[in-house]
Amino acid sequence: MIRKFVIIILGIVAVVLASTSLASSPAFAVSDLPEATLKTPTLVPEESVSTYVPSQAAPGLGLAVNMIYPEKSRYADGAPVAVVASGGNAADGLNFTMHAAQVGFVEVRMAFPGGGKPKFQSGGIYDYRGSESQLALKDVLLFAGGKIPDTQGRYISDIVPVKIAKTNVGLVGWSNGGNIALITLGKYSDDLKSVVSWIAFYESPIGPLFFPPNLGGSKDLLINKHYRQGSGATGACVVDWKKLQWAGSTMRNSGEHKKLSEPEVSGVLYFDENKNGIWDESVEYALTYALDVGLDKQIYPPEVLHALQLSAMFEKWVPDVPDPSEQGNRPPPPPPKPKPLKKGETAPAAAKPKMKHIVAWPKNLATLRESEAYFEERDGSTYYGKVAAEYPNLLIIVLATYIDHLQRQPDHPHIAMQYNAWLAHKVHWVRINPESSYLAAVTGMNIENFTNNKPNASIDAATIANYLEAEGTTKDYVMMDAAIAELADRRRAKNLGSPLPAVLTPYFNSANPPPPPVPPKGEQ
Questions:
Q1: Rounded mean pLDDT of the chain?
Q2: Domain identity same for 367 and 388
Q3: What are the pLDDT digits (tens) for 300-340?
Q4: 189, 197, 230, 495: which has the highest count of C-beta atoms within 10 A?
Q5: Are residues 137 and 91 in the same domain?
Q6: Closest Cα to residue 59, out of 171, 118, 139?
Q7: CA geometry: angle at 427 spanning 421 and 432, to 5°?
Q8: Which one, of 180, 183, 175, lies nearest residue 201 by Cα?
Q9: Which domain holds residue 487?
Q10: What are phi and psi of 238, to 5 degrees?
Q11: Are β-strands 395-399 and 429-432 bridged in parallel, bridged antiparallel, or unpaired?
Q12: Strands 120-121 and 116-117
């Protein structure tokens, strides 16, 4: 009941804020919500150490790695390790933290090849989460699991000043980090299956249509209304591409890529609702493209480019004029003079010129083959089966909230698709969102504020909102801390039972001590 109350209140807030200008005073504000629905644990000051990890992907310097460690390990035999695959598409993951140290973990952050800070940078060249980045993540995971030393010959247990539980190492795919997490585990399963015990995904856009978001993202004015609601739960998003149109000289979001030191590529691929050939940003949804190093073209998902090919948008017929280069640079012979007409004769109809068919594919638009190569290397959805098979004891939590941070389709197709894919490939253990007992323990809130979905159980995608965490109850990183705490505890205790009335390993740091015991009735 409390969770339903939170969702109702947040819905009222959203409606009121949407219909009220910034200058006016809204009827509800975030501060008007009950205190319990906004509770965030107090943070203990965090400390960290840094090093370089050797990798063929980062020649010279190696990979810049930073480790945040807890004041007190989660277990008597050491702190579990959470390696973060950061979200977005940037090379530097050193700025991001999910404060895993607050629940007794060592959190390992990294800069992909070519990324980092001026005085703390990884070697190599960034490849937009491609094969070099995947190799780098593999090497950081091996370092986190105590399998390889840093560039100075030191192992993680020699550097971090707390004991490490080296048999309890997990990977956190934060948003788009979920793609590289899956691919790396699949490509390097021989090296990593003895290292990685669990994975947590935060609203990961796994699938070509989800990153970049082409069904409607948080930065879009509109959502893609040509997507068929509910189809994502079947494993394939159904989209009607008939109204696609290309505005080759139009520039969208000018300056956005320049800020990221990326090439500015003109062209907008959009749905031409009124069929006038002009993109109207206020009413016509435009797709979002990706970029690749050394390829100054807009890259759209293969499904989109296949639809463009079928539409024959860039095809045309032209007269078959002889090429002078094929005739030794000689001009073509003049046409024969017409014969004089006899009395009563009429001139014959002029012969129609032979026509030939050409395809004028825009130079600033990636081809289908280029798109397939790009997404084959970066789309994690093709690795579900291999990861499920190669990691027979893998534990997974898919974290998802009522209002996604990136996707805007109300049926949350990326969450339904991912969860159903794990079930279809019979992964050992998977659930949507952590046990409510873990969320309650980490936040200090009432257990009724949270969902408690049954692991390895089918879901009704039509009512997917019932499986998601309410928005605004606490910070996203706090929910992720609960997720990794549950995964590591289950791994250690070998306990997959559900529901759990209480956490398997109670943990309290100095900023959030345990509540005082409640005296028996009659002794108060």
A1: 88
A2: no
A3: 999 999 999 999 888 766 676 665 544 455 556 666 677 77
A4: 197
A5: yes
A6: 139
A7: 65
A8: 175
A9: 47-209+379-493
A10: -95, 120
A11: parallel
A12: antiparallel
